[in-house]
Amino acid sequence: MLKAYVLMNTELGQESAVVKALGDVEGIRGTHALYGIYDVIAEVEAESMERIKEIVFTKIRRLKNVRTTITLITYGEPFIRD
Known about the structure:
Layout (H helix, E strand, L loop, with lengths): L1 E9 L4 H8 L5 E6 L6 E7 L2 H12 L5 E8 L9
Antiparallel strand pairs: 1-3, 1-4, 2-3
């Protein structure tokens, strides 16, 4: 499985609406509203790069109130501290 994190800027005051809408998107494992430069982050998991691109381009970017996105693709094994 591949994993990506998608950072989003939303329309002013629409963070909660975007987080709620992302909850209905298959392949999104979790979302959080943020304080700072970005408004929302979503964790995306899929079996291929094509599927990640599909989720980002056809599901996330087309959501009402999403203005911009930055996608970070992960690689390698995660570091987990005991």
